[in-house]
Amino acid sequence: MKAVILAGGSGTRLYPVTITVNKHFLPIYNKPMIYYPLSLVMLLGIKDVLFIVNPQDLESFEKLFGNGSHLGINISYKIQEKPNGLAEGLILADEFIGDDNVCYMLGDNVFFGHDLVKIMKDAKNEIESNGGAYVFGYYVKDPERFGIVEFDENGNVKSIEEKPENPKSNYAVVGMYFYDNEAVKIAKQVKPSDRGELEITSVNEEYLKKGRLKVKLLGRGFAWFDAGTHDSFLEAGEFVATIEKKTGLMIGCIEEIAFNNGWISKDQLLKIAQPLRKTDYGKYLMEIAKQER
Where's the Nucleotidyl transferase domain (predicted)? Predict the structure, then answer.
């Protein structure tokens, strides 16, 4: 399985902050927003990652991540000329995905919870074994803002609707999707919505029609932030700060994950930490390097 992280878009919900800065570089507490989805991909053991980025931001992404070799992974980039909807990311990633399955992540979503990685690995294994699509639902108070999934009395998915005026449930589909190789083909057949966008909900609807969509609800004990608004951005940062201060462990520390995965050596980790030695982040990496794996 390969991973595609959508990190383009205009970030208009965070204006005026994002007029000159891509939102994915903004800090969620002590690290860039984009670190969080990348960290989950790495925790899944996926080493081939494609970032979908705006033309004007490519150089900054390359400066931040390069080709990923310092993390023991392979990072590549694809330009999205203008934001035409979430499903377009799958189309742009066609060549990169090739014959593989794909983990598709939104770059502004932050997740945390007990057994989150296990749940994601279960989804990955389900797709690799049986194909189809596997997505996650989360209870929200403002369902009009999201793609909403409806269930029958037996818990089976009845419908998925994008930003409905009259929501049929309060369960939003979050920005983490696992698809078999059919996803690209399906995305190419999606017609623009009334909003003029290629909706990822339309991709999920097609899998639902074929009886090949699984939805797992993330209940109590899970936190999900769509950090694309001022309030949710602030909430995500406060949440991460609280957890890290209480536990002494970092969320979304990509270098730590690379080290724990055995993808980089102690010397490589210390080399990364050295320029950051005056920061809490750099000090944390140095402490990690001292620990036996």
Answer: 2-241
User: Is omega for the bond preceding 16 within 30 degrees of 0, making it cis?
Assistant: yes
CATH 3.90.550.10 residue ranges of the chain are 2-252
Any idea which fold 2-252 has? Spore Coat Polysaccharide Biosynthesis Protein SpsA; Chain A (3.90.550)
Q: Are 163 and 64 in contact (CB under 8 A)?
A: no
Q: How far apart are CA 149 and CA 168, in angstroms?
A: 8
The pTM of this model reads: 0.95
Tell me how far apart the alpha carbons of residues 14 and 22 are, in angstroms, rounded to a whole number. 10
Where are the alpha helices (H) located in the chain, listed in sequence order?
Answer: 35-43, 58-65, 88-92, 94-97, 116-130, 182-188, 200-209, 230-247, 254-260, 266-273, 280-290
| pLDDT tens per residue across span 136-192 | 999 999 899 888 999 887 778 889 988 898 999 999 999 999 999 999 999 999 999
Closest to 49 (Cα-Cα) out of 37, 31, 59:
37
Distance CA 108, CA 28 (A): 10
pLDDT, tens only, 44-84: 999 999 999 999 999 999 999 999 999 999 999 999 999 89
